[in-house]
């Protein structure tokens, strides 16, 4: 199974795109501005989107994606997320004021989009045999990460999260953990901001990674565009034992 990075930045500017990953050909993990890297033909093949939470940098292009390809599809695009996230999308985005409610277009009986709740601990097996399991995350809004299990190995995306003791025992039980994508949004001098906004800084990341007992590749996501070099330098110092690598747009991870 292949995961392509469409966007992995904590902001925009130049080539920076916010969080979205293409899983195979038919699945998106989050729908930030990285979705714009896809052609219309590629977007039309997306059957499901798994959202980690409702913040704009993770859902920004979902409304435009559905508007662009809805009429090209024979089946509605399914949006999976926690019930709390789906409720926020319904109230604040697909509400006829910010954007049309595509759960009702062209009709409620045959909509372009449907919502389906997937809560922490629940799993869904897709037609390509890949299993997606929602994992616990701690953020300023209800949030979750995802385990992507190809049957041969797993890739874990934490989503936006802060210190989260409930995550690591789950990861430590995975026999074939091929990679961990984990956020670090702020540099160490902004630790108070990281804590207030429920993100990580390099020092906090190092403490979290020390809870991981399985050897795996560690990839850093959600870096702020103006602090990429500084934050990665601090990560290389604070978490040197784990050899974290910066995730990059266009990168492909196989598992």
UniProtKB/TrEMBL annotation:
<dbReference type="InterPro" id="IPR001279">
    <property type="entry name" value="Metallo-B-lactamas"/>
</dbReference>
<dbReference type="GO" id="GO:0006198">
    <property type="term" value="P:cAMP catabolic process"/>
</dbReference>
<feature type="domain" description="Metallo-beta-lactamase">
    <location>
        <begin position="17"/>
        <end position="222"/>
    </location>
</feature>
<dbReference type="InterPro" id="IPR000396">
    <property type="entry name" value="Pdiesterase2"/>
</dbReference>
<dbReference type="Pfam" id="PF12706">
    <property type="entry name" value="Lactamase_B_2"/>
</dbReference>
<dbReference type="GO" id="GO:0004115">
    <property type="term" value="F:3',5'-cyclic-AMP phosphodiesterase activity"/>
</dbReference>
<protein>
    <submittedName>
        <fullName>Ribonuclease BN, tRNA processing enzyme</fullName>
    </submittedName>
</protein>
<dbReference type="InterPro" id="IPR036866">
    <property type="entry name" value="RibonucZ/Hydroxyglut_hydro"/>
</dbReference>
């Amino acid at each position: 199974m292949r995961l392509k990075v469409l966007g992995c930045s904590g902001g925009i500017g130049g080539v920076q795109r916010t969080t979205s990953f293409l899983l195979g050909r038919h699945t998106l993990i989050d729908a930030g501005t990285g979705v714009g890297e896809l052609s219309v033909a590629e977007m039309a093949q997306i059957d499901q989107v798994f959202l980690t939470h409702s913040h704009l940098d993770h859902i920004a292009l979902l409304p435009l994606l559905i508007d662009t390809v809805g009429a090209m599809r024979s089946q509605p695009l399914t949006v999976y997320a926690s019930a709390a996230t789906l409720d926020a999308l319904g109230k604040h985005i697909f509400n006829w004021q910010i954007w049309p409610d595509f759960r009702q277009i062209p009709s409620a009986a045959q909509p372009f989009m449907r919502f389906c709740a997937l809560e922490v601990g629940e799993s869904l097996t897709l037609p390509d045999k890949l299993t997606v399991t929602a994992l616990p995350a701690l953020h300023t809004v209800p949030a979750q990460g995802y385990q992507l299990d190809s049957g041969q190995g797993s890739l874990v995306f934490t989503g936006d999260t802060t210190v989260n003791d409930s995550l690591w025992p789950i990861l430590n039980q995975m026999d074939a953990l091929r990679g961990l994508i984990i956020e670090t949004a702020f540099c160490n001098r902004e630790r108070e901001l990281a804590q207030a906004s429920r993100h990580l800084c390099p020092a906090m990341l190092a403490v979290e990674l020390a809870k991981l007992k399985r050897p795996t590749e560690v990839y850093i996501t959600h870096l702020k565009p103006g602090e990429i070099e500084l934050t990665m330098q601090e990560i290389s110092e604070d978490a040197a034992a784990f050899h974290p690598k910066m995730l990059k747009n266009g990168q492909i991870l196989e598992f």
